[in-house]
């Protein structure tokens, strides 16, 4: 039976700065199983839909421009307590406040360009996973 799942994106700053391999290694070593994985580039429309909860925020346009800047890695990850454990692994949104040893502390450049995404609930993890993957692509 499937354990809990979460969804992640290795964001453009981390891709451009050559951190994708190190980040994938941290994820796997932390006990997450890869259930789905691909390289893709968000269109402006897709980024606007994915981050639609933030559409009224002052940083929305900046976020959409950033997230569409280059190809990103997207993945579905499986583990007990996946959402919470993954948020712990990636650290706080602002890398200045991110915990020592977290992905964002190690690799993020700023509040906006913060290396990685992690779902904030299992319901959103399912929605976000099906935004990128067909059922047959999730193992
Ligand atoms: P995600 O895992 O990407 O969803 O990040 P989060 O859950 O830690 O933060 P949140 O959902 O509140 O914000 C989504 C993303 O918007 C952040 O990861 C940042 O990339 C961006 N963002 C949030 N706040 C700011 C801000 O004040 N300025 C800028 N430029 N970007 C922001
Ligand atoms: Mg979020």
CATH A-level architecture? 2-Layer Sandwich
User: What is the straight-line distance between the termini?
Assistant: 11 Å
Strand order of the largest sheet: 2-3-1-4
User: Structural class, from secondary structure content?
Assistant: alpha+beta
Shape: globular
Measured by DSSP, the beta-strand proportion falls in 15-25%
- The total beta strand count reads 4
Radius of gyration: 14 Å
Helix count equals: 7
Unreliable spans are: none
Distinct small molecules bound, one entry per kind: guanosine-5'-triphosphate, magnesium ion
Q: Tally the structural domains.
A: 1
CATH C-level class: Alpha Beta
Q: Biggest β-sheet, characterized? A: 4 strands, antiparallel
Write down the secondary-structure element order: EHHEHHEHHEH
CATH fold call: Alpha-Beta Plaits
Your description of this structure?
With about 140 residues, the chain is of the alpha+beta class. The chain has a single domain, classed as 2-Layer Sandwich (Alpha-Beta Plaits), CATH 3.30.70.141. It has 7 helices and 4 strands. It has helices at about 10-15, 20-30, 45-50, 60-65, 80-90, 105, 120-130; strands at about 5-10, 35-40, 70-80, 115-120. Strands 2-3-1-4 form a 4-stranded antiparallel sheet. It is globular. It starts with a strand and ends in a 7-residue tail after the last helix. About 35% of the residues are buried. The model has no long low-confidence stretch (mean pLDDT about 95). Guanosine-5'-triphosphate (GTP) binds next to α4 and β4. Guanosine-5'-triphosphate binds next to α4 and β4.
